[in-house]
Amino acid sequence: MAPTSMKWDQNSLLENGFVRDEDERPKVPYNKFSNEIPVISLEGIDDVEGSDGVKSRRAEICDKIVKACEDWGIFQIVDHGVDARLLSEMTRLAKEFFQLPAEEKLRFDMTGGKKGGFIVSSHLQGETVKDWRELVTYFSYPIRARDYSRWPDKPNEWRSVTQEYSEVLMGLACKILEVLSEAMGLEKEALTKACVDMDQKVVVNYYPKCPQPELILGLKRHTDPGTITLLLQDQVGGLQATRDGGKSWITVEPIEGAFVVNLGDHGHYLSNGRFKNADHQAVVNSKSSRLSIATFQNPAPDAIVYPLKVNEGDKSIMEEPITFMEMYKKKMSRDLELARAKKLANEKEQDLEKVKPVENIFA
Ligand code: OGA
Ligand code: NI
């Protein structure tokens, strides 16, 4: 399959299948920021000593994270200890990558099913409407599975910076999973152990500016399949979340140096539905392009997915334990099925309109 054109203009928008059905189009502007998503400082997270009647700093932070996971499944963290220089280098080099000539980016072309590399719109096959984005993705953990031939090698320093970034984010994600394990009344390592040998995949999203952003999405509404995702975004804005099935949306306020953290389906199942898998999407705008770097922490493909704790009187939200790979495949085929059914229904409706008797047309 030839790669989709990388012309991000009006013609491409109208001709190449980016326009969404009305019910899927953005409902809230990319820059109307909400403060509903909590911003949590991790300063003192290792400080476990409380004093008389006063909670330890760790306990306070845990309470906030747990509440955010129960309410939204998404929150932001600051004072997380990751070097600001590493974050700005990562962002700068990622931006430079997308500015490279098309033929440079296409050296890593993923069309045809390559594991990792560059692609326009989506790495999933069979999408009915396209996302307004370019992306580069690579698998960074487990280390033995790294295939450096699929990691971008330009700009020059990027490979070493991405290695460092991956390592630091693995540590940070595990720290947050420790907090959630404790909140479930389990040992600290319970959630990471449930991942068996944790995978990490990085997706760098580049959303070009768009002449008619009200018609399209940079990334369609979804939940992430894995355990937990850490997203670094620039200052433009465009990440949106909903907790009522897409009726109302909020735009997450970009904060310099913060990570947006969200739980995925795996995290949701492990907690037996107590923690939400955040429903989210990305919108674009006509003024500037936007960059985000999503780091997905996933269980090993053959890890068994099951609730780690079912509270007394509750039922398990899973009928039977299945592997993460099976869970992922089911999700993907369900999503594609829904999109296809919708497309079919739309086509039928149009056909019906075509065959309407003449008198009805003028009625
Ligand atoms: C993702 C994602 C949001 C964004 O890559 O899964 O949700 O703002 N990205 O780019
Ligand atoms: Ni996502």
How is this structure best summarized?
The chain is α+β, with helices and mostly antiparallel strands and 363 residues long.
Structure characterization notes:
The protein has 363 residues and is of the alpha+beta class. It contains 9 helices and 15 strands. Strand 9 and strand 10 form a beta hairpin. The longest helix is centred in the last third of the chain and has 31 residues. The termini are far apart. N-oxalylglycine binds next to strand 6, strand 8, strand 12 and strand 13.
Q: What topology, given as strand order, has the largest sheet? A: 2-3-11-8-13-6-5-4
The low-confidence runs, each spanning 5 or more residues with pLDDT under 50, are 359-363
Mean pLDDT value: 92
What's the N-to-C terminus distance?
46 Å
- Output the helix-strand order: HEEHEHHEEHHEEEEEEHEEEEHH
The major β-sheet equals: 8 strands, mixed
Radius of gyration: 21 Å
Small ligands present: N-oxalylglycine, nickel (II) ion
What does the overall shape look like?
globular
Find the structural class using helix and strand composition: alpha+beta
Helix and strand topology:
Elements: H1 10-15, E1 33-34, E2 39-41, H2 57-71, E3 74-78, H3 84-99, H4 102-105, E4 117-120, E5 134-141, H5 158-183, H6 190-194, E6 199-207, E7 219-222, E8 228-233, E9 239-242, E10 250-252, E11 259-263, H7 265-270, E12 279-282, E13 290-298, E14 304-305, E15 322-323, H8 324-354, H9 358-362
Parallel strand pairs: 1-10, 2-3
Antiparallel strand pairs: 3-11, 4-5, 5-6, 6-13, 7-12, 8-11, 8-13, 9-10, 9-12, 14-15
Helix pairs in contact: 2-5, 3-5
